[in-house]
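In response to reviewer comment 3 from the previous cycle, which asked for concrete evidence that the modeling workflow produces usable outputs, we include below a single protein chain processed end to end. The sequence was submitted unchanged, and the resulting C-alpha cells are shown without manual editing.
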Amino acid sequence: MINKMKHLFTRILEELKEHIPFTILASFISVILCFLLIKSNLISSVVSVFYIFHPLHLFFSAIVSTALFYKYRKNIFLSILVGVFISVIIGSISDVFFPYLGSSLFGIPISFHLPAVENPLFILGVSIFGSIIGIAAKKTKFPHFIHVFISVFASLFYIFAYSTNFNLLMLFLILIITTISVIIPCCLGDIILPIFFKEKIKRISHEHEFGGKKLGVSVQ
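The workflow returned the following C-alpha cells.
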C-alpha cells in the first residue's frame, strides 16, 4: 500500500514538472494575446469563442477518458457513461468552476455560467460523440500541447467573457487563476483517474483469477 502511494506521488510530481512550466508560459502568452484581441475589437463575441473552446475541451477529454476505460473494461455502454461523466465534470471544473472561484477570491467581478446546465443537450451531445470516437479510435493520449492549449483558452475566455474592467494587476491574477485551473484538473484527469482505473481493473482481474483457481476453474 505504501509503495503504491509512493508510486502515485512520484507520478504526480513527474507530471506536474511537465505541466507547470509549459502551462505558465502558455497562460502568459494566451492572457496577453486574448487581452490584445479583445481591446483591438478583433473578437466580436468573447462568449461565442468560449463556447467553441469549452466543447472542444470536453470533446477531447471524452475521447481520452472513454478510450482509457474501454482499454481495461470492454463494455461500450459503461465506457461511454464514464467518458461523458469524466469529461463534463473535469471540463466544468477546469473551464468554469476554477476560473469563477479564483476570480471571486481575488475580487474580480464575474458572473457564473455553467454550460452543462444552460445548454445540457449540446454539452452531452459533444461528450457522447467524443466518447464514441474514443471507442472507435482507441486513442488514450493526445499531444500535451493540444490539451494545455485548449484548457488554457477555455478558462481564459470564460473569465474575459463574464468579467469586466481589466487592468495590469487583474491580468497577473488571471494568469495565476488560469494556470491553477489547468494544472489541477489535468493532473486529476491525466494521472489519478487513469491509475485508479488501471489498478481497479487489475484488482478485479486478480480476485477473479484467484477465485477461479480456488474453484478449479481455468480463467483465460
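The two ends are 27 Å apart (CA to CA). We consider this sufficient to address the reviewer's concern, and the full set will be provided in the supplementary archive.
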